[in-house]
Write a structure and sequence with these properties.
Elements lengths: L2 H28 L2 E7 L4 E6 L4 E7 L4 E7 L4 E6 L4 E6 L4 E7 L4 E6 L5 E6 L4 E6 L5 E6 L4 E7 L4 E6 L4 E6 L5 E6 L4 E7 L2 E6 L4 E6 L5 E5 L4 E7 L2 E6 L4 E6 L4 E7 L4 E7 L4 E6 L4 E6 L4 E7 L11 E3 L1
Antiparallel strand pairs: 1-2, 1-28, 2-3, 4-5, 5-6, 6-7, 8-9, 9-10, 10-11, 12-13, 13-14, 14-15, 16-17, 17-18, 18-19, 20-21, 21-22, 22-23, 24-25, 25-26, 26-27
Length: 322
């Protein structure tokens, strides 16, 4: 073998090595995402690795876990346990409960302030919102709201806390600085899940089989027919996604035309939904089939159903990316 041939082989091997190193770096830079699914029927949280779509671990929490709030900046998950009336604090670095916080009420919906300093929690039976400090996990304040407060979300742009008052058929908006009431808006029958982004509030009206989209600038409301018994609704880019609990599907709403453009089958009794931005998928929790369903956002096709735990709920934003 002459010198020229040896040189070519060496260059080829070097290129292969560089490509391999680049691929590894690119893979590491992409990161990982996880879904934290509260399983109300077995008092656990399933940690689902969304890179390989496997249940990585199950974590024992309190009795009847329902709501969840992910605090990205502190790498924590706050779990609301309805029957034991307490909160489980999960360290996302080690996926273990590091603290249990006793409350004097059953926590339902949880919504973090994007600053990471506090979490707002609806108290269904006391008609209140609790303010939990993430510094020492103490309840620093409570404020009274409408009857049966259910879903809760935080609007960063306007510094608003928005909640559904289920039995009053209202959405209530509060100033997050002093917790004063900004506005009450009549919506459909039995509003439950709620989300908000930029200029809009999205509400699932369970008994009307509709969602309400409220424009915060002028408080105008659009009502859109969806599937059977919508439970929750989120928006992402130019679409909204609605879980239809008794239709076993989700509705896809075009936010340019405010029309339903598609229904996608899920597992049984889909309830809650979040976006896995890392992989471009929707993740839907299915209460009736003890599972989650992954859906490709680009193709709007269901990809896979993964068994998680008994009565999977995950009421809130339940995806963590690192």
């Amino acid at each position: 073998m002459n010198f020229t041939s040896q040189k070519k082989i060496l260059i080829t091997l070097l290129l292969i090595l560089l490509i391999t190193i680049f691929s590894i770096c690119l893979s590491n830079a992409k990161g990982e995402s996880f879904a934290y699914i509260t399983n109300q029927g077995e008092d656990t949280v399933s940690v689902v690795n969304l890179n390989d779509l496997t249940v990585h671990k199950k974590i024992d929490v309190g009795d009847s876990p329902l709501g969840i709030a992910i605090i990205d900046s502190k790498e924590l998950a706050i779990i609301g346990n309805v029957d034991s009336q307490n909160l489980s604090i999960i360290d996302l670095k080690i996926n273990e409960v590091i603290k249990t916080i006793k409350l004097d009420t059953a926590p339902l919906g949880l919504a973090p302030n994007p600053s990471g300093g506090e979490v707002f929690i609806t108290s269904w039976f006391k008609n209140q919102v609790l303010v939990l400090s993430t510094k020492d996990f103490s309840v620093t304040q409570t404020f009274n709201v409408g009857v049966t407060p259910s879903g809760i979300a935080f609007n960063k742009k306007y510094n608003f806390i928005v909640i559904t008052s289920r039995d009053a058929n209202l959405v209530e908006i509060y100033n997050a600085t002093n917790y004063s009431l900004k506005k009450k808006i009549k919506v459909g029958s039995h509003p439950y899940g709620i989300s908000t982004s930029d200029e809009f509030i999205y509400v699932a009206n369970v008994y009307d089989d509709t969602i309400s989209i409220i424009n915060i600038k002028n408080w105008e409301q659009k009502v859109i027919k969806v599937g059977l018994r919508p439970y929750n609704v989120i928006s992402y880019k130019d679409k909204a996604y609605v879980t239809n609990a008794q239709g076993d599907n989700i509705s896809v709403i075009d936010l340019n035309t405010f029309k339903e453009i598609k229904k996608i089958n899920t597992g049984e009794t889909p309830e809650n939904i979040s976006v896995d931005k890392l992989h471009g998928n929707l993740i839907v929790s299915n209460w009736g089939s003890d599972s989650i369903t992954t859906i490709d956002i680009k193709t709007l096709k269901a990809l896979k159903q993964i068994k998680t735990g008994l009565q999977s709920r995950a009421f809130g934003q339940f995806i963590y990316t690192k």
